């Protein structure tokens, strides 16, 4: 091909790619219309070129942070602009359905600028937090969540009570869901610093509800009621209303159990029509993103019950849907997951789709960029980012209660406002209860048969794909105008009662939960240190702390003498030479038997390194 023709074609292709960055897709058939205050006939492809996006959280300047499961990257995105790389989270292990999953912002983000993420390591799932300006300095908030090839959960969101809620899966071992001895198959509730709220349903435990197979969506309505989406095995997926201390049945039963000792689901679906992940609430409607079902479910709710027939939107339009969240612009944001196993990606995948609220003018009054300028993540990268291109005067739906739906939110809208109470819930459709919507009160349970369905997960292992959009430097500039530091907010009291349920049914041989131990326990830990000398890369050390007691610990101090063979150890108390005491102080919930590993810098030139004696003391 002649060089001039080749250059001309390249220019045309570049122009076409740029124009595709912000487009309105084909209209839906006439009559497929408006659901929950959103016009699904006018979806907009706002962001393209992502790889397996998972979590979504909104910054005060109305841009969003997006996690990529398989690449461990966090991107800052805005409709019509090129994504900007914020950071790459280290030590992420993306096997199976694990990897970098949920993301949430501190409720006091305007003041403390703290970001939370949930991810899989080679040994566990965990939650860490970091300051917006220094994402490499991470603090473990919660560690020791069992991981597996399937059932890793991963959604995190701050509730209306200011507490951090964490959804976990059963890690492929169904009995974990009914066991009080670990964190798998649960919804957990902790303070922002990882400590346990005193009003949790089970004294001294982060467990808020149990008997879950794999929860990946969390949302609250305007009354503070909590909902969750859950993957079943091979029979039924579920949408549940979550109550403190509730037992949701897995693996004793799946779907509607007919057993008063467990909570019944509000809605059940076959996995082929759902496999639900993200969840958001707006205008009396719960929106559930379906992976295998390649659709968005809209479920009308009021007072914790179903009040109408679930509606299907976007079926087959964009492929597998992972996350849904109500944006600060009033639009509904939906992410695709077509690069994960089971998906069929197109050239623009993975994408973020925006659904406009009813009455929002289109096209916008000011032209939207076809492929706007890249978001500048550097502190000196120019003026603040402008809001998304939807008109500021357009009416917006009532926001999701709590954490901005299940999108990992907790972010605020507008120019760094403080979080404010949600408006009154919009009217819902007239009641026509779903056949499966008859929640049963949780009651005392005796032993019961435990048929355990086969564990054939909906999400399948997927290989790590090729890199996402071209990275740009990090860290990102602050999205808030001149914030002033302040301490994390005091925890608010839980809006729900805190029952202490009796033991609930569990499959043999798994023990039934007995989460309130009557006997006092012990608090102890042990630590090991390993040094990895290397010529190919800077040498490093690994510190592993294990809880050897019978009670959870939330902070600990490790000390050892820097051995000969090293030139220094970079510890919490500074750059320590050989013979000096290296001190490491850490915080974060560590359950009995669980372990957490962190890395640190060392100096080494050559020769052998002696193994130090290490002490670990809970504080």
Structural write-up:
The chain has 619 residues and is mostly beta strands. Helices cover 4% and strands 32% of the residues. It is built from three helices and 36 strands. It has helices spanning 3-19, 109-112, 401-404, and strands at residues 23-24, 34-35, 38-39, 44-47, 53-58, 64-68, 73-77, 84-88, 100-105, 114-120, 125-131, 134-145, 156-158, 164-167, 186-190, 207-210, 215-220, 226-230, 237-242, 267-269, 276-282, 285-290, 295-302, 305-306, 311-313, 321-326, 332-336, 352-355, 525-532, 540-547, 553-561, 568-571, 574-576, 581-590, 595-603, 614-618. Strands 1-4-28-27-26 form a five-stranded antiparallel β-sheet, with no helix packed on it. Strand 21 and strand 22 form a beta hairpin. Residues 1-32, 361-374, 376-415, 417-476 and 482-519 have low confidence and may be disordered.
How does the SSE layout of this entry go?
Elements: H1 3-19, E1 23-24, E2 34-35, E3 38-39, E4 44-47, E5 53-58, E6 64-68, E7 73-77, E8 84-88, E9 100-105, H2 109-112, E10 114-120, E11 125-131, E12 134-145, E13 156-158, E14 164-167, E15 186-190, E16 207-210, E17 215-220, E18 226-230, E19 237-242, E20 267-269, E21 276-282, E22 285-290, E23 295-302, E24 305-306, E25 311-313, E26 321-326, E27 332-336, E28 352-355, H3 401-404, E29 525-532, E30 540-547, E31 553-561, E32 568-571, E33 574-576, E34 581-590, E35 595-603, E36 614-618
Antiparallel strand pairs: 1-4, 2-3, 4-28, 5-6, 6-7, 7-8, 9-10, 10-11, 11-12, 13-14, 14-15, 15-16, 17-18, 18-19, 19-20, 21-22, 22-23, 23-24, 23-25, 26-27, 27-28, 29-30, 30-35, 31-34, 31-36, 32-33, 32-35
């Amino acid at each position: 091909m002649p060089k001039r023709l080749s250059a001309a074609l390249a220019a045309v292709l570049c122009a076409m790619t740029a124009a595709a960055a912000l487009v309105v897709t084909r209209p839906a058939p006439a009559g497929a219309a408006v659901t929950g205050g959103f016009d699904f006939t006018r979806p907009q492809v706002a962001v393209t070129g992502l790889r397996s996006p998972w979590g979504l959280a909104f910054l005060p300047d109305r841009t969003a942070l997006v996690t990529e499961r398989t690449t461990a990257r966090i991107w800052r995105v805005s409709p019509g602009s090129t994504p900007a790389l914020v950071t790459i989270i280290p030590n992420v292990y993306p096997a199976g359905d694990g990897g970098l999953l949920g993301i949430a912002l501190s409720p006091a983000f305007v003041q403390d600028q703290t970001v939370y993420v949930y991810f899989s390591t080679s040994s566990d799932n965990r939650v860490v937090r970091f300051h917006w300006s220094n994402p490499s300095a991470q603090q473990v908030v919660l560690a020791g969540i069992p991981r597996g090839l399937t059932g890793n959960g991963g959604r995190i969101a701050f509730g209306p009570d200011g507490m951090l809620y964490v959804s976990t899966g059963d890690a492929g071992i169904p009995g974990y869901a009914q066991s009080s001895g670990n964190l798998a198959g649960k919804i957990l509730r902790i303070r922002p610093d990882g400590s346990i709220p005193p009003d949790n349903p089970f004294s001294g435990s982060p467990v808020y509800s149990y008997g879950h197979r794999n929860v990946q969506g969390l949302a609250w309505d305007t009354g503070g009621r909590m909902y969750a989406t859950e993957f079943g095995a091979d029979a039924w997926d579920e949408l549940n209303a979550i109550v403190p201390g509730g037992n949701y049945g897995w693996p004793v039963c799946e779907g509607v159990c007919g057993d008063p000792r467990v909570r019944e689901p509000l809605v059940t679906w076959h996995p082929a029509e759902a496999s639900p992940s993200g969840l958001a609430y707006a205008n009396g409607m719960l929106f559930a993103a379906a992976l295998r079902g390649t659709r968005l479910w809209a479920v009308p709710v009021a007072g914790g019950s179903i009040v109408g027939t679930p509606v299907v939107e976007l079926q087959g339009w964009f492929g597998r849907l992972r996350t849904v969240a109500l944006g600060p612009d009033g639009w509904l944001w939906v992410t695709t997951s077509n690069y994960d196993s089971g998906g069929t990606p197109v050239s623009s995948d993975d994408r973020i789709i925006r659904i406009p609220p009813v009455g929002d003018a289109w096209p916008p009054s000011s032209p939207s960029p076809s492929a706007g300028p890249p978001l500048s993540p550097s502190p000196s990268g120019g003026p603040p980012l402008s809001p998304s291109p939807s008109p500021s005067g357009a009416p917006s739906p009532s926001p999701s209660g709590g954490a901005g739906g299940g999108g990992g939110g907790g972010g605020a809208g507008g120019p760094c406002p403080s979080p404010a109470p949600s408006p009154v819930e919009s009217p819902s459709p007239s009641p026509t209860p779903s056949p499966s919507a008859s929640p049963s009160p949780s009651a005392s349970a005796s032993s019961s048969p435990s048929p355990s369905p086969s564990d054939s997960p909906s999400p399948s292992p997927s290989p790590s794909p090729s890199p996402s959009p071209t990275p740009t430097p990090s860290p990102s500039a602050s999205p808030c105008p001149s914030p002033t530091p302040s301490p994390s907010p005091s925890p608010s009291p839980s809006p729900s009662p805190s029952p202490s349920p009796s033991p609930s049914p569990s499959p043999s041989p798994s023990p039934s939960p007995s989460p309130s131990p009557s006997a006092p326990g012990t608090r102890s830990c042990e630590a090991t240190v390993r040094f990895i000398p290397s010529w190919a890369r800077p040498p490093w050390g690994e510190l592993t702390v294990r809880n050897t007691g019978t009670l959870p610990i939330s902070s600990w101090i490790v000390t050892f003498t820097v051995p000969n063979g090293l030139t220094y150890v970079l510890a919490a108390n500074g750059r320590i030479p050989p013979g000096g005491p290296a001190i490491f102080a850490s915080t974060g919930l560590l359950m009995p038997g669980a372990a957490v590993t962190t890395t640190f810098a060392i100096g080494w030139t050559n020769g052998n390194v002696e193994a130090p004696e290490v002490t670990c003391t809970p504080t």
